[in-house]
Known about the structure:
The chain is mainly alpha-helical and about 325 residues long. It has one domain. The chain has helices at about 15-40, 45-55, 55-85, 90-100, 115-125, 130-155, 165-180, 180-195, 200-210, 220-245, 250-270, 275-290, 295-330. Helix 3 (about 55-85) packs across helix 13 (about 295-330). The longest helix has about 35 residues, at about 295-330.
Amino acid sequence: MSSTFENTPAPKRPLPHKWRDRALLGGLLVLLGIGLIGLVSATGWRETLDQIGRLHLWQIAGLLGLSLANYLLRALRWHVLAHRLGLPTGLFQDARHFLGGFAMSVTPGRVGELVRMRWLKRETGWAVERTAPLVLMDRAGDLAVMALILGLSVSLAAGGIAGALPVTLLAFGAAIIATRPRLLAALITYFYRATGRAARLFARARGAARSLSRFTHGPTLIAALGLGLIGWLAEGYAFHLLLGWMGADIGLWKAVAIFVFSTLAGGLTGAPGGLGGAEAAMVALLSLDGVPLEVSVPATAVIRLTTLWFAIAIGLAVFPLAERASQKGRK
C-alpha cells in the first residue's frame, strides 16, 4: 500500500537562474550603495547648499535643463545604436534602459552598465555578448565626442590647459580601439594568449568585438557623434553660465575645456562617477586660471550636483520602472 506522501507534489523551488539574477541585482545595489556613500562623503554639502541659496530658481532650472538635454540626446543616441544593432526595442523602451542605468553610474569601475544588458536580455532574449557592443559603442562615442570638444575648446581658449593633450589623445585612442572590430578582437586574443585562462569568456568577448562592425555605418556614426557632441556641449555651457553667475567668467571655451577635461580625467581613474579626480582637476584648473577657492570649490560642487547627482536622481527614479518592465517582458 503506497503512502499518501507519494502522491504529494514536491514543493516548487526557485529556478537557479532566478537566484543568480537576484544575486546579481543585490551585488549591483551593494556597489551602488558604496558609490553613493563615497560620493556623499566627498561632496561639500554645506558649501553647495549655501551657494545654491544665492542662485535664482530660474538659474538652477537652467542648469538642470541643460543637463537634461544632454541625457535625452544621449538616450536618443542609445536608441539609434540599438536600432542599428538590430535590437527589437522602441524609443521609449531604450530611453528607459539608458536613463535607468544612471542609477548605477557611481558603481566602482562602472560595472553598473551590466544592468542595462540585464534588462535587454530579459526583454529581448538577447545574450549579454550580443548586447555588449551597444554598451561599448555608447562609451566609445562619449570618449570620441569629449576628445573632440576638448581639442576644439583648448584650441579656442586663451592660454590652453596643461595636460589636455595627453588626455585628449588617450580618449581618442580608447575610442578608436573600442570601435575597430579587428583591432579590438586582436587585443582580446593577445590577452587570452598572455593569460591562457577563461577561454569561453575570451571567445564571447571576441564575438562581441566582431559585432561592432555593424556600427561602421556612415549615417549611424554621424548621428551618434552629433547627438553626443550637442549633449556634452550643453553641460559645458552650463558650467560657463554658472561661473558667470558666480562672478568668475573665464570665457566660454575655457569653461567648456575645464569641464570636459575634468570629467574625462575623473572617468579615466575608474572611480565611481569620477569621484575625487573630477573635482580635484576642476578646482585646480580654475585656481590656475585665477578663480579664488571661495568660488572654485562651491562652483565645482554645484556643477557636480546639477550634472552627476541629477543624473543619479533620474536613474533612481527610472530604475524601479525599468526593473518592473523587464520582469513583465521576461522571455
